[in-house]
Every structure is written in C-alpha cells, then in structure tokens.
C-alpha cells in the first residue's frame, strides 16, 4: 500500500474530500505534519478522526514562535491516542537568510530543542533542510541516537549519505518528477531501497503532470509511479517496500487492520 509520508492536510480546503480521493486512488496512509502552534490542534484532530491518518508535532524552521513549550504540552495531551508518531517538521532553512547568522542561530536553537525532546521521549523526527548542509549534518551528528526522515529531500548526495549513515531515511516529493531536478533523481537512485519514503508535502509541490496546481495526497501515486519507473522497480514492490520502511521508522504507527 502506498503511504503519503508527509502532507499538510490541515492546509487543504477540504481535507475530507482530499482524503476520500486519495483512498479511492489506492493511497492507504497519511502522515499529517505539523509546522506551528496555531495549526497543531487541526493536525491532531485529523489523526484522531481518521484511522489512516497519523500526526507529527513540531515547529518548522520558518516559524518564529519563541516559546516552544506547546510542543511537549501537545505530545502529553495526545500520547495516549497513539496517533502522534513523530516530532517535526523541524530543521534549518537558510534559503531566505544566507547572510543572517542571527536568524540562523534562532533556527538552530529551535531545532536543537526539538531534537533533545525527541531524544528524551524516543520519537523519530521529520527534518526539513534547505541550504544549510554543514549545520544540519553537525547537529544531527550531535544527536546520534535520534532517527528520522530527511523530508522532501533536495540537497546534495553528501548530506544524504551522512544522514543515511546516522540511520535516517530519505523522502522524495513531487520535485523528483520536475524536469530540472536531475540532482534529486541522482540522490534517489543512490538511496538504499530499504531507506526510501515518498510524500506529497501537499498542498505544495504537485508532481508532474499537475505541476503548478494545488497538490493533494492522491498525487503521491504520480510521484511513486515516476520513481518506480525511474528506478526500474516493480510498482507492487515499490509500494510494499516503502510501506515497510514507513512502519520500521515510525514504530508508534500501528498498521491499519
Ligand atoms: Ni512539509
């Protein structure tokens, strides 16, 4: 079964319609990822209300809220439901602040706070990283007992390799289908098959042939078909392996009966 390992259902106009369409198209699971305090209750409610939706709690690097105590509060609140399976998305995004070390340091402290939480509470993490390879690698190395996924991966093979060596998974979004994404495809072809995940990151980054349109979890099927074809991998085996990878990483997620 195909799983959309990273989507933002709460940012879609009609999450329930999008979920129904994806299920009809053969998508069997959805990890709805939090990015900030304001949206987190919607994220968790979607997971509570839908057997095939899980939630992740965290603060995106571009979110500037300083008080992060809401993260552990929400984890405690939803822990017993066993629908919160990861922390994130968290990480570093220097694409808009390449010369602003103060902003970079703010992101670093927010990232380290969440990694420490993941280490203590034993949750896997969802990492967002853009144009911040050196800092990302050294911080992940400092938290070497934490595991997770490098989501919507667009960085170099060197960073992918470091993450893989630390036990991380690499997730491919619709970007891998874009014409100009040769480097992303090259990374995808080098990731071991037991470490690959696939995602939409919807509502953003719709894959070809929907590029430029609003993305939705159904379109993970396009990215999966593209990747399976590109990697010369039987579709049924691609679905099986990426599903196994998902449940191996997110051990708190129970398989859907
Ligand atoms: Ni995301």
CATH structural fold name: TIM Barrel
Strand content is 15-25%
The rounded distance between the terminal residues' Cα atoms is: 12 Å
The beta-strand count equals 8
The helical percent reads 40-55%
Which CATH architecture would you pick?
Alpha-Beta Barrel
Which kinds of small molecule does this entry bind, naming each only once?
Answer: nickel (II) ion
What does the overall shape look like? globular
* Overall pLDDT score: 96
List the uncertain runs: none
Whole-number tally of structural domains? 1
Q: Class in CATH? A: Alpha Beta
Q: How are the secondary structure elements laid out?
A:
Elements: E1 2-7, H1 15-24, E2 27-33, H2 37-49, E3 53-57, H3 69-78, E4 84-93, H4 101-121, E5 125-130, H5 133-142, E6 148-150, H6 157-165, E7 169-172, H7 182-190, E8 196-198, H8 220-230, H9 235-249
Parallel strand pairs: 1-2, 2-3, 3-4, 4-5, 5-6, 6-7, 7-8
Helix pairs in contact: 2-3
Question: Care to describe what's here?
Answer:
With 257 residues, this protein is of the alpha/beta class. The chain has one domain (2-249): TIM Barrel. It is 42% helix and 17% strand. The chain has nine helices and eight strands. An eight-stranded parallel sheet has the order 1-2-3-4-5-6-7-8. β3 (53-57), α3 and β4 form a beta-alpha-beta unit. α2 runs parallel beside α3 (69-78). The longest helix has 21 residues, at 101-121. It starts with a strand and ends in an 8-residue tail after the last helix. The relative contact order is 0.16. The mean pLDDT is 96. Nickel (II) ion binds at residues 6, 8, 33, 89, 201.
